[in-house]
Amino acid sequence: MQVQNSEPILKLSNVGKSFGGLRAVDEVDLVIRKGELHCLIGPNGAGKSTIFKMIMGIFDPSDGQILYKGKSLAHMKKWDRFKEGISIKMQVPGVFGDLTVYENLRIAAQRTYSKKALEEKINYLLEEFNLTHLKGETVNNLSHGQQQSLEMGMAIANDPTLLLLDEPVAGMGPEETQFISNLIKKINNNGITILFIDHDMEFVRSLAQQVTVLHLGKKFAEGTIEDIENNEKVVEIYLGQS
Ligand SMILES: Nc1ncnc2c1ncn2[C@@H]1O[C@H](COP(=O)(O)OP(=O)(O)OP(=O)(O)O)[C@@H](O)[C@H]1O
């Protein structure tokens, strides 16, 4: 898909968030276009998760505006945002540990699908996320990477328009990271716009078309991964730290 000139799915204009005296996010402008795979990076405490939480409706912005498909998200409840196609996978797996893989996917997909279509959707997700052989396994018995894959499957079970991923490969080894990277590319190729947060630059390099750097709540830089990695100021405040 030609992403560069596609329509904006999400637009943050002058968005800020204060927690008491702390300015966690400050005057952030951000445009995510249809079909894009966009990454937010920055040092700890830069405001990345707070931006996700404002998009999800967990926090209201203190100021500024967030438009989703051209409509303001102000006053839109979390559940309505989900129904409008905004889905999130948080860092800590939000799976039901005592239930099986199949049951977890069923719970996620049955919000949108029923009967034969539901079974077809579950089978598709099991196949796509390499979980077919674990269909009847209790989720607590799965590895961290398998649980992350499952949650990714649950996050796209309702065919979202915009998928937010908070550090999707945190705590994973190289093989699992590679698997998740391929999976994200596949999800994106299927037409889902993705905004993700990560600290693993190799992973970011393998995926992101556009990168936005946050620092102390503000947008610090933006561009392609090459622009960002060649930006001396970004290297100084973030990339040179590890
Ligand atoms: N609910 C809250 N109440 C008070 N302060 C908060 C709250 N949530 C976040 N903060 C503060 O806001 C700032 C931005 O936090 P945020 O979690 O958005 O950063 P981040 O870029 O996601 O960091 P990390 O990479 O460590 O996850 C931090 O100083 C944090 O302590």
From TrEMBL:
Q: Which InterPro entries does the record match to this protein?
A: AAA+_ATPase, ABC_AA/LPS_Transport, ABC_transporter-like_ATP-bd, P-loop_NTPase
Gene3D superfamilies per the UniProt record, alphabetical: P-loop containing nucleotide triphosphate hydrolases
Q: Name one GO molecular function term.
A: ATP binding
Q: Which PROSITE patterns match?
A: ABC_TRANSPORTER_2
Q: Which UniProt keywords apply?
A: ATP-binding, Nucleotide-binding, Transport
Q: What is this protein called?
A: ABC transporter ATP-binding protein
**Would the keyword Transferase be found if you checked this record's keyword annotation?**
no
Looking at the record's lineage, which domain of life comes first? Answer: Bacteria
Keyword Transferase among UniProt keywords: no
**SMART domains, per database record:** AAA
Per UniProt, residues of the ABC transporter domain are 10-241
